[in-house]
Amino acid sequence: MSNKVEQIVRLLPGVDCGGSCGHSTCSDCANAIAQGASPALCPVCTQKTVDAIAEIMDVETVSVKKKVAFIHCAGTNSAAKRLAGCFSCQEAVDSGFLDTECSYGCVGRGSCQKVCKFDAITNIGGAMKVDRNKCTGCGACLDVCPQHLTSLIPFEATNLVPCASKDENQRTRELCIAGCVGCGDCVENCPTGAMTLVDNHAVINYDLCSGCMACTVSCRKKIIVDLLHDLPSVKNSCAFVSCNGGVKAKAKYEAMGITDCAEAAKLAKQLDKNTTELCRDGCMGLGSCIKVCRHNAISIKDSSAWVDPAKCVGCMECVRICPQEIIHIVPYKGIKLIPCVSDAPLEVKGQICKVGCMNCKSCVNNCPVGAAFMEGRHATINYDLCVNCSACSYVCSNALVMEQKVPEFRYLQIDAMKNSD
């Protein structure tokens, strides 16, 4: 071994990672560099190390940018649990997928983990995740993934798309709550042109990405990861459940052995609007929306689903799953909200719900900006017009009108964003 090779070997990591240098050992990599390969041939080397190797070789140094591996799958609905008995990821993929599973997702058998010499990849909830602080960007994990989910991205990258599904919009929606539906909203709103759609999912060109929050906020499903910003605090909308009177309904359905909102809704649709047994339009209180919320923003409160606006990011998954269609996306700002969509006659409402709209029209008649109006037999609010003046709250005969309280920093943030235009 020549003196130069020995010096270079001492500078290399010495773990024989078998990464993207194209050599199985650090000794072979050092030999290649000594024979004229780039001083940055080893992808693990820092700029300081590359500079030192260049000095040994008496050549110009090469600028390097630290990269880390990223697995483009959130693992929400892959076949990982079912295929847990498979020895490798390739074996798992070859065994095939069910119609209810994403055939493009991580199968979780850890082939990437087995080749990682830096202990940077772990199995979390059936899907493989990379610890960016441990990952050296060696690239050993890239070629072993049969789903081609792993890529190297700049260490400083802050926006990430954890999905590589090629399925069409509707199928992705049905299969995965964290899947990209290829809507193109991020592409349209990206100020630097860094976002594109490839095979029905968003892809980021990190050479163009500025790390702003445009793609994260505009993402229809809110699945784009932003490591810089707290998405719940920078959102412009959130979900609202237009019913807070599910006490009677929830108890009735549970007594019948019904635990699914969709099943309960089918029964509710069969009820006559004049029935005093149950409200056929309100919340079932059985929590189907809770199961699809990735941000723990929904809970059952007084037997009805309730959304915490401070946690909700407006991803619309709860809107999609609600069989009663009573969850709506509303602006995240100080506004008034009316939690009732019942179209039952007044005399019936009084018997089935103590917190429903009584159709008195007081809010409509007293709203100074015309934001309150009647929709069938219940009042509702035009959120674009609402100025949060509280007139409707004062005159509501049933004390029904709710206020969406927003932290002061949000108001300051909105003003700052307006001033930046």
In words, what does this structure look like?
The protein folds into 3 domains: 3-57, 3-methyladenine DNA Glycosylase II, Chain A, domain 3 (Orthogonal Bundle); 67-229, Alpha-Beta Plaits (2-Layer Sandwich), CATH 3.30.70.20; 237-412, 2-Layer Sandwich (Alpha-Beta Plaits). The chain is 28% helix and 15% strand. It contains 17 helices and 16 strands. The strands form 8 sheets. A two-stranded antiparallel sheet has the order 1-4. A two-stranded antiparallel sheet has the order 2-3. Strand 2 and strand 3 (127-130) form a beta hairpin. Helix 1 (3-11) packs across helix 2 (26-34). The longest helix has 12 residues, at 408-419. The radius of gyration is 28 Å and the shape is elongated. The model has no long low-confidence stretch (mean pLDDT 90).
Give the averaged pLDDT, no decimals: 90
In total, how many beta strands? 16
Query: Can you give the helix content as a percent range?
Result: 25-40%
The major sheet is characterized as:
2 strands, antiparallel
Read across the widest sheet, the strand sequence of neighbours is 1-4
Structural class: alpha+beta
What name does the CATH topology of the largest domain carry? Alpha-Beta Plaits
> Measured on Cα atoms, how large is the radius of gyration?
28 Å
Q: What is the CATH class name of the largest domain?
A: Alpha Beta
Please report which band the strand proportion falls in: under 5%, 5-15%, 15-25%, 25-35%, 35-45% or over 45%.
5-15%
CATH 2nd-level architecture of the largest domain: 2-Layer Sandwich
Q: Gap between N and C termini, in Å?
A: 62 Å
The coarse overall form would be elongated
* Poorly predicted tracts of residues: none
Q: How many separate domains? A: 3
Q: How many DSSP helices?
A: 17
